[in-house]
Amino acid sequence: MTKALISVSGIDATGIIARVATKLSELNINILDITQTILGGYFTMMMVVDLDGANMSFEAIDNELQPVREELKMAIHMQRMDIFDAMHRI
Amino acid sequence: MIETGEILQTLRMIQKENFDIRTITLGINLLDCSDRDAAICAGRVYEKICRIAENLVPTGEHIEREFGIPIVNKRISVTPVSLICQSDPRPIARALDRAAQAMGVDFLGGYSALMHKGATMADERLLSSIPEVLAETKLLCSSVNVASTRSGINMDAVKEMGIIIKKTAELTSATDGLGCAKLVVFANAVEDNPFMAGAFCGTGEPECAINVGVSGPGVVKVALEQVRGQPFDIVAETIKRTAFKITRVGQLVAREASQRLNIPFGIVDLSLAPTPARGDSVAHILTEMGLEMAGAPGTTAALALLNDAIKKGGVMASNHVGGLSGAFIPVSEDIGMIEAASAGALTIEKLEAMTCVCSVGLDMIAIPGDTSAAAISGIIADEAAIGMINNKTTAVRVIPAVGKKAGDRVEFGGLLGFAPVMPVNSFRNEDFIARGGRIPAPLHSMRN
């Protein structure tokens, strides 16, 4: 399983989770975990996803997220979970 | 499952505390490129580097993007050129520089000679070409090993390097002596160092290898902010824990690069390498420990603790460690060091003491343009003596600022930064340097 973290942050608005989740569903990317919070009108969400279903390269998936970034005007970063596992788990 | 707090900690380290992988350095053996005809040798060198390093930069960029960790430099290190050049080394230098540019790497190291015991004819040819080559090339870095614990100090080479550094500064005076920023004089040089200017691929190395240098002084500084006023036991533990986390990412990047390039993993260099950016300073770790500025009494002790804790924390995080491993203290590349030198808190003499306990040596120090070649040789000899006696790598990378005096400023730009010109002790040492010969290797018992 190729796990990645997708972090979404920016000004809160209606339908952010729906828009991101819909895109991931279209790409056949399974969501494994979600945490989300709003602090002072600032939306922050972290999703752990499994990229294997997409059958695309990491870069191609990241490019697919570009229209969502532009539409929502949110910062959306995707990175492999390995970096967090390496740093925090022995 | 990783907890949210842990994810946020990693993201904060990267986004706010300047944590990065400083370099992926690909070591390449060039011994099989040697030929009596310099042009043939140069052609083989170019072809081999371009063949092996073809995917280095794109692979580095992919890893950067996928893991969300900046990899600041991609570099190449090669077999010391004096070992492959049987005639004029300059065509090889030009081929190396062209190959580095074609591959899109940031630096290529290995225009080097290992002459701690004596010089071959090739070493002599290479040495005399260094000023011209560093003035002419863009990305090529040069290093010369003049001493080792096992063989002593080659004082003939030390004498010659004083002259070569002066000449390099003069030929590159238009860029504040930038050539000297690409030239380092070593004692006990290591074969797998990924850092410039001293990277080369030693003869004990495999055909090629991936060596990774990590960096994150800002992360250590922020971690220490949480333990203000606590005893040094806690300080050391905090640094160890932070170094472990940083190095684990270095190990991950090294493993990924090695797999994707199908090139063996060499080592992770457990390093704290600063940049001139605020929040990326080794000196500010020292001030966080309670010193007003780097150079204040206690600085050497603070640095000793830091250097040791970095290694202890990092060594368990990687299956092979090597290179120079420790805290770097370059002056022009560290905003805290620049401030300390400008304020007069830091002198070359204090820096020399610090080099006894840091990872390398006197690094990126601008000195007055009228400093004599003998004085530079004297600085090199002192530094080599520290390395030789203490069984450690030491180095000198000083930049004589042509036409400038103590207190003026030199500007190199980018990672190399800027620096105040620091005064050099002006008492004469010409007769000492003129002696030449070798300082014998030290005794290894009775270690006081």
Major β-sheet strand ordering of chain A = 2-3-1-4
- Compute the average pLDDT of chain B: 96
Structural class of chain B: alpha/beta
Regions of chain A with pLDDT < 50 over 5+ consecutive residues? none
Order of helices and strands of chain B: HEHHEHEHEEHHEEHHEHHEHHEHEEEHE
- CATH homologous superfamily of chain A - what is it? ACT domain
Largest interface summary: A-B, 22 and 20 residues
Give the overall silhouette of chain A: globular
**CATH class designation of chain A:** Alpha Beta
Give the ordered list of helices and strands of chain A: EHEEHHEH
- Note the main sheet of chain A: 4 strands, antiparallel
* The number of domains of chain A: 1
CATH-defined topology of the largest domain in chain B: Anaerobic Ribonucleotide-triphosphate Reductase Large Chain
Structural class of chain A: alpha+beta
> Which percent band covers the strand fraction of chain A?
35-45%
Word description of this protein:
The complex is a heterodimer of chains A (90) and B (448). The model of chain A has no long low-confidence stretch (mean pLDDT 94). Helices cover 36% and strands 38% of the residues of chain A. The radius of gyration of chain A is 13 Å and the shape is globular. In chain A, strand 2 (30-39) and strand 3 form a beta hairpin. Chain A has a single domain, classed as 2-Layer Sandwich (Alpha-Beta Plaits). Chain A starts with a strand and ends with a helix. Chain A contains four helices and four strands; from the N terminus they run E-H-E-E-H-H-E-H. Chain A has 90 residues and is of the alpha+beta class. Chain A has a four-stranded antiparallel beta sheet, with helices on both faces. In chain B, 43% of the residues lie in helices and 20% in strands. Chain B folds into two domains: 26-187, Alpha-Beta Barrel (Anaerobic Ribonucleotide-triphosphate Reductase Large Chain); 214-439, Anaerobic Ribonucleotide-triphosphate Reductase Large Chain (Alpha-Beta Barrel). In chain B, helix 5 (121-136) links the parallel strand 3 and strand 4. Chain B has helices spanning 4-15, 38-52, 56-67, 90-103, 121-136, 155-171, 178-181, 217-225, 232-261, 283-288, 299-315, 335-343, 348-355, 373-390, 430-434, and strands spanning 20-28, 71-78, 107-114, 140-148, 152-154, 183-187, 208-215, 265-272, 321-327, 362-368, 394-401, 409-411, 418-420, 438-439. The longest helix of chain B has 30 residues, at 232-261. Chain B is globular, with a radius of gyration of 21 Å. Chain B contains 15 helices and 14 strands. Chain B has 448 residues and is α/β, with parallel strands linked by helices. The model of chain B has no long low-confidence stretch (mean pLDDT 96). In chain B, strands 1, 2, 3, 4, 5, 6, 7, 8, 9, 10, 11 and 14 form a twelve-stranded mixed beta sheet that branches. Chain B has a two-stranded antiparallel ribbon with strand order 12-13. At the A-B interface, helix 2, strand 4 and helix 4 of A face helix 1, helix 3 and helix 9 of B.
